[in-house]
Design brief:
Layout: E1 4-9, E2 30-33, E3 39-43, E4 46-50, H1 62-68, H2 72-75, H3 80-90, E5 94-98, H4 110-130, E6 135-139, H5 146-157, E7 161-165, H6 181-190, E8 194-197, H7 203-209, H8 217-234, E9 246-249, H9 256-268, H10 278-281, E10 284-288, H11 294-301, E11 306-308, H12 323-330, H13 335-350
Parallel strand pairs: 1-5, 5-6, 6-7, 7-8, 8-9, 9-10, 10-11
Antiparallel strand pairs: 2-3, 3-4
């Protein structure tokens, strides 16, 4: 059985932008050092977040400490053979790669977005080509320019991409906005899922939640993902795109029972019955964490629509480099179900 890490990461570096088209060179991000001594990406004259990776989170758990021991060259994709060898050590056959810098808004101008997307996707395609199909990836599209987004989707699907990443809030649009329908139609045709990784490019929402005392990531990233999944059901998007798959990545799965409880009560007041297996009925997959109450979650999620990832490359509360090993060794769930979470479910979702 192939073991698939459904949520791993690349860390963007100066080398990422070597893959930009020559005609896009004017849009190349630059690294500047702030007054705090930290390096940041400068794009369109604005500070767009820390360069070469997220701030290290200290003291969260021993899992994070283990993760921090990963050699930088493997995290930064400077040693792809080494990364593959480390995957072998961890018992991982395939990693699905997500961006780091794109968790927040990276630019304001459509032309910049097109240029950055093209460069990022070509960097990932190069990584995939070197990996013997073991490092798959999700495409970042210039979503404000739909024609360009569709062109980039088609190119990416031919070069190792197995998903399209949308943030739960893309500027002022939510995942059920009809603006996305051409993208959803083409992704459905190509058998490419929509992966809603935690993230938000809505600056106003981000500024509101950052006041929560811990950086705002719970409200603007995780809760927005939960709301997006809720919207897919209430709006019955599956009726318009019956073969299109949606994944909710890195928000844990502990919220699934809560959402289903709410949907069942809320829809009943509108004369609508909720299906027994909600995730399956609405083509929704969810990544879990090893500290989720998996037996409880399974009662609501079913065993066919759960995935797991390591968050390889990051250092935060979602990072568990040995997550795939830990969930197998936990012993709380039938090994047959664990095998599905580690392999078959991810193969189905990503079309691998």
């Amino acid at each position: 059985m192939a073991v698939i890490d459904s949520d791993a990461h690349v860390i963007e570096t100066e080398h990422t932008w070597d893959f930009m088209l020559p005609s896009d060179s004017a849009y190349r991000p630059e690294i500047v050092t702030g007054d705090d001594g930290v390096d940041y990406w400068m794009i369109e004259g604005k500070n767009r977040g820390r360069a070469r990776g997220p701030v290290a989170a200290k003291g969260i758990s021993e899992n994070v400490d283990r993760h921090m021991e990963v050699d930088e060259s493997k995290r930064l994709m400077e040693d792809i053979p080494g990364r593959l060898a480390h995957m072998d050590e961890l018992g991982i056959d395939v990693q699905v790669l997500y961006p780091t810098m794109y968790i927040s808004r990276m630019c304001d101008k459509p032309d910049t977005e097109v240029a950055l997307s093209r460069g990022y996707n070509r960097w990932l395609a190069n990584i995939w080509e070197q990996s013997n199909n073991r490092l798959r990836w999700t495409a970042m599209l210039p979503i404000e320019t739909m024609d360009e987004a569709l062109n980039e989707l088609r190119w990416s699907a031919e070069h190792g991409a197995c998903g399209v990443t949308l943030r739960s809030l893309e500027n002022d649009r939510i995942v059920v906005d009809p603006y996305y329908y051409p993208l959803y139609q083409e992704a459905e045709r190509l058998n490419i899922p929509i992966t809603v990784h935690i993230g938000s490019s809505n600056d106003h929402i981000n500024e509101v939640f950052v006041k929560d005392g811990v950086g705002g990531t719970f409200g603007r990233l995780r809760l927005m993902s939960v709301a997006a999944a809720h919207m897919l059901v209430t709006n019955r998007l599956v009726d318009q795109f019956p073969k299109l798959r949606f994944g909710f990545i890195e928000a844990s799965a502990q919220w699934v029972p809560y959402v289903i409880h709410d949907l069942r009560r809320r829809l009943a007041t509108r004369g609508r019955d909720l299906e027994d297996n909600v995730l399956s009925a609405y083509n929704i997959w969810v990544t879990l964490q090893t500290d989720d109450d998996l037996p409880y979650v399974l009662k609501y999620a079913g065993e066919d629509n759960l995935l797991i990832g390591t968050d390889y490359g990051h250092q935060d509360q979602s990072s568990e480099i040995e997550a795939l090993r830990l969930i197998r060794d936990n012993g709380d769930v039938d090994p047959r179900v664990i095998d599905k979470i580690l392999g078959d479910n991810a193969k189905t979702f990503y079309g691998i």
